[in-house]
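Two proteins follow. First one:
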Amino acid sequence: MRVFGIDCGTEYTGWGVVQVEETARERRLVPIAAGAIKLDKKQKTPLRLQQVFAELTGLMVMYEPDCVAIEDVFFAANAKSALKLGHVRGVAMLAAATCNLQVSEYAPLSIKSAVVGYGLAAKEQVQFMVARLLDLEKAPEPADAADALAIAICHVHTAQTHFGMGVR
């Protein structure tokens, strides 16, 4: 199973690809790639959204994931910020749908619980555990890429729990 994780943001949208490799003796997570789409705040919103769509679609075509995992909406104090984030999430979902990929959404608490074991873990703890779980020398950078990998890892753990070893 290959999972494409997306951490939506209005300045940076992180992405990461994780694959599950199974042998007769073990099952391990393998990092395939990760990065972030940097958005220019000077550009108008439609152009930023077009960039997110184009880059995510291209990455999904390149890495051929089986599914996409994305962070669910959280309640922000600033309604305008939440709305802008919602635009990016919608475009990310559209990119996945355009590539005929199923999208699963996970709450921030669920992601942190799956990766760290504690839903209120600090960002640094999540980054540290992503590096540990993927056997990396250091946490992926930027932090948005590490968060996207965490979302993909969360999906792998959740899919394993809910659906067994098969791809969903």
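Second one, unrelated to the first:
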Amino acid sequence: MAEKKTALVISAHAADFVWRCGGAIALHAAMGYEVTVVCLSFGERGESAKLWKVPGMTLERVKAARRAESEKAAKALGVHKLICFDLGDYPLRMTDENKDRLVDVIRDVQPSFMLSHSQYDPYNTDHMYATQIALETRMIAQAWGHNPGQKVLGAPQLYLFEPHQTEQMGWKPDVFLDISDVWEKKRAAIECMEGQEHLWEFYTRVAQNRANHFQRNSGGQSGGRATKYAEGFQSVFPRTVDEL
């Protein structure tokens, strides 16, 4: 029996996994991967301005709306399991108990690879905090002395998905993924995030621009693969290969 293929996304807020790696999620789900998404918060305080402009809006109503949006988007992308930690945002903070819960998720999923945010983001410290937590919990999940008896984690690559303003984040992609075949799924998921409609076209343009980079790096005009939509990622750890 073939070993189950899995992946894990650690998203600071409810919409981050959609904008930044929705194509990777949909593409790998179509390949048979079970993709688990952990949303550490709903982004209810800092990333829901459109909802807060509605008279009489409350925190619980915003959270409910964001949960519904993320669930609908996850379904559109083919997410295997969406886990909402509901830790609050602006700022996002995690206790040791929260971290242990995430370690349990990582060990349960046993991901072939993980995805999270850029390691630096001066505009939104929740994002870089989420990646700090991803690295910390990945390390803990590898430790044989943490909860002995659980299956320890191997060494999955952590890919950092594209931040909003790359030149300010020190993010440098070294992997481009063609998501043309699943673009309609990503666009459908994007349109589920009604609280941030102002980003729909922005992230469509990002995917089109990265498609240009995919074609250039796959051979350029002399033989590169024509691509309409792509996503970029930065790998944290060295990759072990037998051939290039």
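SUMMARY FIELD: The mean pLDDT is 96. The beta strands are 6-11, 34-39, 81-84, 113-116, 157-161, 175-178, 230-235.
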